[in-house]
Model the fold of this input.
Amino acid sequence: MGAGATNAQPLLSVGALAAAYRRRCRPLSPVEVTEVFRGKIVDIGAKHVMIEISGPENKIEAFIELMRPYGIREMVRTGRVALMRGGDGANRRRQKSADEEQ
Done:
């Protein structure tokens, strides 16, 4: 991607029950499924795990289907989230705004 290119993709956060893993209802634990999908464990306790997954829609849907047997307690999804690469987009807007005020 060149200058000014964006990296946009949907984001999903899932809270699931850890108790289902102890019942061995799936061959992989929620943590192992998260690792396979290159997700991130953002919180974990004796009875829950909170996971972040980002990527294409079909990846997110596949992850949700694999997590359903564990008992998804809550789920929050976004649409596409994007920032310009290079990090100077906000600075350009501030400079343009300052120039317009003069």
In short: The chain has a mean pLDDT of 77. Residues 21 and 29 are 6 Å apart (CA to CA). The chain has one domain: 9-101. The beta strands are 6-17, 40-44, 48-54, 72-84.
